Each structure stands twice: as structure tokens, then as C-alpha cells.
């Protein structure tokens, strides 16, 4: 039994359903996974259809977003197949330099280090930046080479020994997509 049906059973047993108690996850499941329309949901909760539409948009629950999630998270069979194909195309030795440079820009150069270099007091010289960039690209190239060649024992050793010796007491990692998803969404809207 789906969430929509569970709510329907509760309503049929005399419970008054309150829209503000419907979580964004429940609404997403009802709308995306169970395929219920705003009208059907509004009738269940005895509110105007526009209230459901507003609530969905407020939480970012859209068909387009769902399709994007499906492909980016590779949940459908088509998306899994495409994801695997792209993985094999990308994880090729010939792409090592491109990957290393792109990740250096994404994770290092296009962050606080650029501000330190570009500010009026110029804390880092052009030579400093060249040295840092080259170091980062080369180290990342080694890491991605391990991944591409599936040298998991060496990768495991690198990660665990480095963590043990240096970064173990740092704050927990908080994945930051650098607004990549927003950029993909904008590109899809243009197309």
C-alpha cells in the first residue's frame, strides 16, 4: 500500500488530514512515485489544488526534477546503463590530465585560494599559484590513475595512512556540488 492509500484509509476511518503534516518526502513520493495529481492530493486533504501545487514547487518537487534525479542518481535501468557507459568513457588513461585539471579547478583553484591570489594585497604570487596548481594536478592525477586502473589496495593504503597521519582530526566532510545541479538544470531549460 502506498502513502496516498495510507492517507486515504486514515481519512476513511474519520481522521481529519492536515496538509501541514504532509512532509516534503511524503508529497514527493505521492506525486512522483505514486503518480497522483495535484487535484487528487488536494481532494484527499480537502484543500485547493493551488495549495498542493504551491507546496510542491516550494519543496522543488517537479517532474523535470524527478527525471534529472533519475539520471544523475542512476535509478532507472536506462540511467544505470548511461551512467556505466559514461564511466567507461571518462575513466580512460587519455583523460587523466583533463580530469586532474578540472578537479583541481573545482576543488581548489576556484575557491578561497583564488581570493588569496587575486586580492589587492596579493598574498600569493603568480609563481606560488603555478607551483600550487602543478602540485595539485599531479597529485590528483596519481589518485585518478589508481581509480582508472582499479588499484584499490594502493588507493586504500593511500587514503587510510594519510587520514591516520594528517587529517583525522579535521571537521567531517560536507559534500558541496558547487551548484553543479543548478547549472545542469539551467542548461536543460535552455535546451
What is shown here, in short?
The chain has about 190 residues and is mainly α. Helices cover about 70% and strands about 0% of the residues.
Rounded Rg: 24 Å
Query: What characteristic shape results from the CA principal axes?
Result: elongated
Order of helices and strands: HHHHHHHHHHH
Low-confidence stretches: none
- Give the oligomer, counting copies of the same chain as homo and different chains as hetero: single chain
What distance separates the N and C termini? 38 Å
Task: Give a written overview of the molecule.
With 191 residues, the chain is mainly alpha-helical. It contains eleven helices and no strands. It has helices at 3-12, 24-33, 38-45, 49-58, 63-72, 77-90, 96-109, 112-118, 126-148, 152-167, 180-190. Helix 3 (38-45) packs across helix 4 (49-58) and helix 7 crosses helix 9. The two termini are 38 Å apart. The relative contact order is 0.07.
Note the main attributes of this structure.
11 helices; elongated; single chain; mainly alpha; 191 residues
Secondary structure: elements and pairs:
Layout: H1 3-12, H2 24-33, H3 38-45, H4 49-58, H5 63-72, H6 77-90, H7 96-109, H8 112-118, H9 126-148, H10 152-167, H11 180-190
Amino acid at each position: 500500500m502506498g502513502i496516498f492509500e495510507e492517507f486515504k484509509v486514515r481519512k476513511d476511518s474519520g481522521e481529519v488530514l492536515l496538509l501541514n503534516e504532509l512532509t516534503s518526502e511524503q508529497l514527493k513520493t505521492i506525486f512522483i512515485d505514486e503518480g497522483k495529481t495535484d487535484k487528487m492530493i488536494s481532494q484527499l486533504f480537502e484543500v485547493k489544488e493551488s495549495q498542493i501545487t504551491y507546496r510542491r514547487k516550494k519543496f522543488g518537487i517537479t517532474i523535470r526534477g524527478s527525471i534529472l534525479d533519475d539520471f544523475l542518481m542512476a535509478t532507472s535501468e536506462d540511467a544505470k546503463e548511461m551512467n556505466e557507459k559514461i564511466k567507461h568513457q571518462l575513466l580512460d588513461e587519455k583523460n587523466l590530465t583533463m580530469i586532474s585539471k578540472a578537479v583541481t579547478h573545482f576543488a581548489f583553484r576556484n575557491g578561497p585560494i583564488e581570493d588569496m591570489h587575486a586580492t589587492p594585497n596579493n598574498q600569493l604570487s603568480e609563481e606560488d599559484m603555478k607551483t600550487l596548481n602543478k602540485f595539485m594536478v599531479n597529485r590528483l592525477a596519481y589518485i585518478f590513475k589508481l581509480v582508472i586502473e582499479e588499484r584499490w589496495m594502493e588507493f586504500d593504503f593511500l587514503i587510510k595512512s594519510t587520514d591516520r597521519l594528517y587529517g583525522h582530526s579535521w571537521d567531517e566532510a560536507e559534500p558541496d556540488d558547487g551548484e553543479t545541479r543548478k547549472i545542469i538544470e539551467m542548461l536543460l531549460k535552455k535546451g
